[in-house]
Amino acid sequence: MVKQANDYNTTIRPTWCPGCGNFGIWAAIKNVLASKNWEGHNYVIVYGVGCSGNMADFIGGYGLHSLHGRSLPNAEGIKLGNHNLPVICVAGDGDTYGEAGNHLIHAARANHDITLIVHDNRIYGLTTGQASPTSEHGFKAKSTPNGLIEYPVNGLALAISEGATFVAQGFAGELQHLTEVIKKAVDHKGFSIVNVFQPCVTWNKLDTFAYFKEHTYKLEEDKHDRHSKIKAIELTLDRERLPLGVLYEEERPAYHEQEASLQEGTLISRKDYSDSVTELFKDFR
């Protein structure tokens, strides 16, 4: 049976604020799953903590709601256990570029075959409006009433410089385009990251849908060379003209393809591994 996006809904309805950019990302992910015609056991999504992590309740299928900043190492473990299983991470900008900054560096340089989708609302939304790693210098919030001292983390430039083989950006207000970008990321073999501008309509009154509509443009229209690291990083340095689409892409063997212990097949399919896991689980009964 051909899948439709709504086939991935659960009985739990989203609890996000009306108008939240998370709805657009949720819809785009379901569109991609439907385009693959995947059943719930054909993929796994690892969720971080925050408003984005609440999506764990709203998409049917294999999933893991991880600790704050720990979605990537959990995803890596799942991928190494069964490298035939597509693995997607859903996390926020604070979750990814703050708590998980170190994990991002090493996931990128190892080129783990994982797709990371970052909900970038430039604020900590679930905890009611503190400045995040992507908030602009001078941003006034609960945690920075006199203005943010630090400058924003450039997550995409960091990912490119550390070896990510697919780096892209999307906007929750451009559903069709975002769906296409995420699909390319999922299809890519190796570490892929998609930073998604996701307006927080409750706590961030600066980075709104109107702001991103005015300041974004599609790279496809500029005929961007997505194979140049230098040009891709240069694009990320412009904080006023924000690119949407694939910034950088290269082909390189993924981590699991080079790991000697995985050359005979998945770990989960090996009897010695399966037996040891079964034995381990006895301690948790």
From TrEMBL:
<feature type="domain" description="Pyruvate ferredoxin oxidoreductase beta subunit C-terminal">
    <location>
        <begin position="200"/>
        <end position="263"/>
    </location>
</feature>
<dbReference type="InterPro" id="IPR011896">
    <property type="entry name" value="OFOB"/>
</dbReference>
<dbReference type="GO" id="GO:0016625">
    <property type="term" value="F:oxidoreductase activity, acting on the aldehyde or oxo group of donors, iron-sulfur protein as acceptor"/>
</dbReference>
<dbReference type="InterPro" id="IPR051457">
    <property type="entry name" value="2-oxoacid:Fd_oxidoreductase"/>
</dbReference>
<feature type="domain" description="Thiamine pyrophosphate enzyme TPP-binding">
    <location>
        <begin position="55"/>
        <end position="196"/>
    </location>
</feature>
<dbReference type="InterPro" id="IPR032686">
    <property type="entry name" value="PFO_beta_C"/>
</dbReference>
<keyword id="KW-0670">Pyruvate</keyword>
<keyword id="KW-0560">Oxidoreductase</keyword>
<dbReference type="GO" id="GO:0045333">
    <property type="term" value="P:cellular respiration"/>
</dbReference>
<keyword id="KW-0408">Iron</keyword>
<keyword id="KW-0411">Iron-sulfur</keyword>
<dbReference type="GO" id="GO:0030976">
    <property type="term" value="F:thiamine pyrophosphate binding"/>
</dbReference>
<dbReference type="Pfam" id="PF02775">
    <property type="entry name" value="TPP_enzyme_C"/>
</dbReference>
<dbReference type="GO" id="GO:0046872">
    <property type="term" value="F:metal ion binding"/>
</dbReference>
<dbReference type="GO" id="GO:0051536">
    <property type="term" value="F:iron-sulfur cluster binding"/>
</dbReference>
<dbReference type="InterPro" id="IPR029061">
    <property type="entry name" value="THDP-binding"/>
</dbReference>
<keyword id="KW-0786">Thiamine pyrophosphate</keyword>
<dbReference type="Pfam" id="PF12367">
    <property type="entry name" value="PFO_beta_C"/>
</dbReference>
<keyword id="KW-0479">Metal-binding</keyword>
<protein>
    <submittedName>
        <fullName>Pyruvate ferredoxin/flavodoxin oxidoreductase, beta subunit</fullName>
    </submittedName>
</protein>
<dbReference type="InterPro" id="IPR011766">
    <property type="entry name" value="TPP_enzyme_TPP-bd"/>
</dbReference>
<keyword id="KW-0460">Magnesium</keyword>
